[in-house]
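Chain entry —
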Amino acid sequence: MIDEEQIKTSFGKEIFQKYFGIFIEPEPQEEEEPGNVDNESFFETDSKPTVEEILDEFPETVSTIIPESSFNPLEETKHYIKGDNTYLEILDYFHASRVGQKKITPLLKEDANALLATIAVTNGLSTIVEGKSRSGKSLLVDKLCEILPSYYPLDSCTNKTIVNISDDINSSGVIYVSEFQEALQDNPTLKEAFKHISENKDWHYNRNGDRTVLSGNNTIISTGADENKKTRNRDVEVSGRFILLRTRDDQDKTAGICEYQDKVAAGEIGEAYFSDERVEKLKTHITDIVSDESTQFENPFAVFFGENYLPKTQKSIHYRTMYTSLINAFTKFDSPNRVRKSDSTLLTNISDLYLANELYHDIYCSTLKRLAAQSFSSLERSLSDVELEEEKTRFESEIKLVEEKKDVEWQEVWDNAYRIMEKNNPGLLNEWISLQSKDGRVTVYDPVKKMDVQLCNVVPQDNVDSAFGEENDTIQKTA
């Protein structure tokens, strides 16, 4: 039972009524003589108590309702709301050394890959994480799988078993393959199945009149070690349908992890705790995204950005679609901070393009170059000298197109999208701008750099030029 006598302050009573639906009659206050203000009433009216003070006022049974969280502890715990930083929640989870009561290994110096893998897999984009042994590939994927609604671990498989376990895979939605190329080796049936699934197509298999279907709604996540020769000779046709990520193996990463280990041993760093409540909130958000099949996307940046900043090569056609899908994935994951139209369409923010470009563009370009090189190498031995020279010219042309990377002129990207929003969604323009700006500047938060990045002016450049032009005309006429 709740003892109303435990709730002393008027603010405490307001909070209690708002969040727990119980009204407590305020105590009548005696009129004070002018200038006679006691300390207690002054603090009640001029400052609000801290959360800790509120919890001290409430009975113990009430305080357990308030979650431990990086967000406002008086907000509901089930879903993220506008203003919550969903990307930092991902990184806090991967950095954690303890989740609830369970001690785990933190993933360090892999923030970009942790974000990309989570965003991609959550939104149905099959992903392979490659890199050297002991560089964190399996740790990343293992921790990601822990916050997915469900997954099916495919440690080893043959052509026969993939058919037998199809129902289990379809009910799980995500297939975790420990070593991608190892699984495909000498398994043509599995290879064909993965080709279909990675393009969101159902795979049908008939055996003795029995028909088996693997759903194209499944998503594959896998790893590949550089030391494995099979990984180095990866199947271009199949792997070209995946988001390909690489774990770092540079000295900076190694030094950072070693420094962390030393400071933990010396007691200079405590455990990074991620509560059970935060895990459930993150898992609920991911489950909602995975199960949501109705949301559509409207990207006012798409045409201008694609035309000016995405390489146009023969190998890039499918990857351009994946790039666009990744931008949509960022939009959907951070949907509490996006404008949603009445028909459930989400409007892309410039931060979705910024993060895709900042975290994925170099990977995208290196993948295109590697796929082009592998394709050329596979044809090299079977071509005549004339054909080989033609193919070499085509290959060099593709590489040149990919390497001609331009720095993004964010003001041009913004201005173009602004005009499209003015034309197509005038009633939503102000809300769309307010979600992307601070102090008159288009601003995005970079979760890897952990800082706000100002990209450009909110007011389109031609508006500014026009305003200055009108001012100059006035000056000249006055003269």
